[in-house]
Amino acid sequence: MAKKVIVSLEGSDRRSFIKKAGAATLFSAATLNAGFANPFLMQNKVLKVGLVGCGGRGTGAAVQALNADPDTVLHAMADVFEDRLTSSLELLKKEHGLRAEVKKEMQFVGFDAYQKLIDSGVDVVLLAAPPGFRPKHFSAAIDAGKHVFYEKPVAVDAPGIRKVLEAAKKAKEKNLSIVSGLCFRYDLPKQALMAKVLGGEIGEIKSITSVRNGGELWYKERQPDWNDMQYKMRNWYYYNWLSGDFIVEMFVHSTDMISWAMGERMPLSASGVGGRQWRTDKKYGNIYDHFAVEFDYGDGLKGNVTTRQLSGGSSRNSVEIAGTLGNAFYQGDRHEIWGKNTWKYEGETNDMYQSEHDALFKSIRKGSAINDGEMAANSTLMAIISRDVAYSGQTISWEEAMNSNVSLGPENDAYSWDLKYDGPEIAVPGITKMI
């Protein structure tokens, strides 16, 4: 079993910090931002946690949140489906006993359940509903002065990204901690690898290649008592207005690695292709099953990404960064550099999912806020622009992507079980407009 290591990545400027610190001081708490006075800072206060979105990832986040700090309790839960909330609660009670004894009046069900939870007296909100709801839920939590853990991706379209950026700015002004589900940022081997890259160990970066190929995921057969919206909500992954398409929902980890390696420098533009070869059945909604995209950073520097999901194919999840002095490489447990400064990570490992929450709750206790807002929004927009260039068949600039007014789904306040919403048609490159 990997040794558990508590990682703290507090401070508002990771890029500057990593470049200055290097590997030797990357994890030194003495170098972290001390922060400002925090109205929530009470060393002996029991922190009340609320979970919005009670699926597998949300349940896992709640387990990790309670593991991170002994003086926490699960105070409230919210989901659109009562059965999902109930099953999640049973698992959490088995894991954490009395600390997860959520009162019936603190179990909220429905599309407005998130707001009822935010208003229930919680201190920390865990946001794990489908990504299409994330901007609204995140903004509401920040407006109410709550610390937030919010899963990736942070939005499914540019209007959502802008809403998240606005809320993240408010969080900074309020000294609220916000930690995103881009967990690679909290993984010790990847931190060490990126410290080497940003410290110049491979020289000037000339290209980045990322590949993520995998198999099919879950699907829930329609039940007799489900109407159309219930069916789509149960299968949210296959509707881009709920998930963003799989390149946004899952490949965002890879675009985040690229952004990290580039010192948070965003591409000037992107172009690419994609389509549906495997997911041809109507049950797969309107998402694609493969993408290939090129990012253009100017001066000849390119980033190339490919991803697909199908049964029977080979699997791979890797990032390779080519520099003038050598290459940096990540795949599975391998974190290496070959070239002038050959190196291989052989240090401690950690549970990066747990470390996210360890860092979040430590920052709350210290009054030293973490703010993953701009980083998470930019990495998500990199995934969104990747989808949009493939959907449209057009080259799209970063500025055009950020300012796009194309919204994939209805306003969150419009949702109800009676809502009739088919969503966008399956995209046809050359015809579909994304800006």
TrEMBL record:
Listed SUPFAM superfamilies: Glyceraldehyde-3-phosphate dehydrogenase-like, C-terminal domain, NAD(P)-binding Rossmann-fold domains
Species classification: Bacteria, Pseudomonadati, Bacteroidota, Flavobacteriia, Flavobacteriales
Positions of the Gfo/Idh/MocA-like oxidoreductase N-terminal domain: 47-173
Stretches assigned to the GFO/IDH/MocA-like oxidoreductase domain: 197-327
Name of a matching Pfam family: GFO_IDH_MocA_C3
PANTHER family: BCDNA.GH03377, OXIDOREDUCTASE FAMILY PROTEIN
Protein name per UniProt: Gfo/Idh/MocA family protein
